[in-house]
């Protein structure tokens, strides 16, 4: 998790060599090129329960610095580490969904490239973001409350979703921005992943397809739905930046 790239590369080489024997037990060879197989084999180490809290912390810190194949390996590994920690009832304040959305929000270009490039990473990101929206849209007022701060967004789901029966919903800005990243890189014609396609279509129905007829686009601004009408709770300003609209327009 060091800020210096040379030190991070050195650390990965050392860990790759130190766990060389366990690495042979890993069938997934997609981690070898980035010298990250050790991230998978670490789960095979004796007494992994004692290592997991620190492993999750330091790999999560490294997410802020890496890109490409290494970033993919880190994200997938942190997800698996947290999953194992929960199954082993290891206490911690980790929240993978929140961490991934914050990462996609703050490093949109880097994450877009990696998610677009790696199928398994894209499938995971789509599932996490979709589940985040589902939780907020289906929660009752007294449930799943989030802090109403400067990073909270309010919007009304498009009426193409649930026949327009849902009212205004609040959710974290990072979750909305993560959805914009996914929608901007989605390639409908190239996708053979039926499950992910269905989830992306649902996200699009929530955020981008308010009506069946073009005339409806002439609505007043205060009646706008989906991402068009998303505003910051504290200031009332648009939640989606110009750069993000450009990103969506290019998709």
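^ Assign residues to that structure.
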């Amino acid at each position: 998790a060091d800020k210096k790239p040379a030190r991070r590369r050195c650390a990965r080489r050392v860990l790759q060599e130190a766990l060389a024997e366990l690495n042979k037990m890993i069938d997934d060879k997609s981690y070898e090129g980035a010298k990250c197989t050790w991230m998978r084999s670490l789960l095979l180490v004796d007494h992994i329960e004692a290592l997991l809290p620190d492993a999750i912390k330091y790999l999560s810190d490294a997410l802020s610095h890496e890109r490409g194949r290494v970033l993919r390996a880190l994200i997938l590994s942190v997800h698996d580490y947290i999953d194992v920690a929960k199954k082993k009832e290891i206490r911690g304040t980790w929240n993978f969904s929140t961490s991934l959305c914050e990462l996609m929000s703050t490093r949109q270009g880097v994450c877009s490239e990696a998610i677009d490039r790696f199928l398994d990473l894209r499938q995971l990101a789509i599932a996490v973001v979709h589940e985040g929206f589902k939780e907020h849209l289906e929660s009752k007022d007294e449930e799943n409350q989030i802090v109403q701060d400067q990073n909270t967004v309010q919007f009304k789901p498009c009426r193409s979703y649930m026949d327009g029966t849902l009212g205004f919903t609040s959710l974290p800005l990072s979750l909305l921005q993560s959805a914009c990243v996914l929608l901007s890189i989605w390639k409908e014609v190239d996708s053979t992943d039926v499950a992910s396609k269905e989830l992306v279509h649902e996200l699009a129905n929530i955020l981008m397809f308010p009506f069946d007829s073009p005339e409806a686009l002439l609505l007043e601004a205060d009646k706008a739905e989906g991402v068009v009408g998303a505003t910051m709770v504290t200031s009332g300003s648009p939640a989606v930046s110009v750069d993000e609209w450009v990103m969506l327009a290019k998709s």
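DSSP finds eleven helices and three strands in the chain.
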